[in-house]
Automatic annotation (TrEMBL):
Keywords: Apoplast, Disulfide bond, Manganese, Membrane, Metal-binding, Secreted, Signal, Transmembrane, Transmembrane helix
Gene3D superfamilies listed in its UniProt record: Jelly Rolls (2.60.120.10)
Source species taxonomy: Eukaryota, Viridiplantae, Streptophyta, Embryophyta, Tracheophyta
TM ranges: 246-267
Domain Cupin type-1: 60-207, 308-455
Protein name, per record: Cupin type-1 domain-containing protein
CDD domains per UniProt: cupin_OxOx
Pfam families attached to this UniProt entry: Cupin_1
Organism: Eragrostis curvula (weeping love grass)
Amino acid sequence: MAKQALIVVLLLVPLLFLLPVSTLALAQDFCVANLLQSQTPSGYPCKPELLVTSNDFVNHGLAEPGLLIPPFKTRLASALVTQFPAVNGLGISATRFDVLPGGVVPMLTHPGATELLFVVEGQMIAGFVSADRNQVYIKALEKGDLFVFPQGLLHFQYNPANTTAVGFSAYSSSNPGLQIVDWALFKNNLASKIINNVTFIDFPEIRRLKALFGGSGHTYKPLLYKHPEESRIQTHSFNFKSPSKLSITMAAKAVTVLVLVLLLSLLSFSSLALTQDFCVADLSSKDTPAGYPCKPQTEVTADDFFYAGLKKPGQIVNPFNASVAKAFVHDFPGVNGLRISGARVDIYPGGVAPLHTHPEGTELVYVLEGKVVAGFISSTGNTVYMETLNKGDLFVFPIGLLHFLYNTGTTTAVMVSAYSSSNPGLQIVDFALFQSTLSEEDVAKTTFLKLAEVNRLKAVFGGSG
């Protein structure tokens, strides 16, 4: 009986471990953050859905440069969960940064996310340092270029030109975290002696940087520790002849098993992060549910993290009068396994990004030029969330939901989109119904469209059946 119970526990625990990841997706389409409540490890509690409006899914905060951060000569505007509550739980967020001539985005990390950088204007030098071999990957970027910084690695950018460089960055988390090395060392009260011990930087330089960044702690005060003898751990022994104590022992063993299973479950999700910094896709191998196998690390160069395919519009897709240039894993192998990718969308006057879904990724769209209407439909109440977007606006489409964009202006609308997956997928409703071999009768029966209309649309999109 005990063995059977243990087997059940072993089967259930991994499933329970998966629940925190999938419960939100199963229960609702989105979870707009209620910023009045305390944050949890999995994000903020949800705002009541009856109070959610289209305004929750649009953010205007990146339309203008943010506040100047001295001495970096860089302006930062953020659209993380605290500024853009709609991205709560959707695995994506964004920032805009304007790097003035001679300015820098200093050495930093995002502990909780991969960063995908798109150069909107100007020139930048971007680079990161791997953790396993301290290999430097650095690249000169121009307008329209993409560069990916793997999660948690030290990275930087600087402006080598005499004009301001503007960047749009998307992150694979609604709260990616930010730790600037200079601030961590020189903007707080960490003692100079400790900094010297752990970095080998000379005291005069530490004092200079403390003064520059406003830190304190020039004098060293030793930390006091209790001797281990002062906090002994009391031990207990059990009499295994007692049935009650025997049950306690069995319970303790069961707890141990549960802990081990949880650790094994954790390992299965984090093995890539534990073993390597990135996994550039080997496109000569077959794709798997977990992504492509890795290119040998000795063959990886900075070019693998760089992509120039969004500089120009993609091919026009008729009859939508729009074009898409993708930066998914098949186009940009550097994003393999990093839970992020991108695309450029150009919608010409009167054009449309038709009703479609991305089954595997949330989409965050940033308007570079023009004017569009963006909207999606929830699956829980078929509620329409729709907004007019102008240059600099952000809009988020939750994962898997039907959504659309169309151009309401007289000029071409240009957008860059980021996705919370290296391969978000794309299913256009018109193509699925009218460009496939699905019979006209089946389309009519399952959509309630008249057969004559199905026949007309099959002719427009080139379908058969």
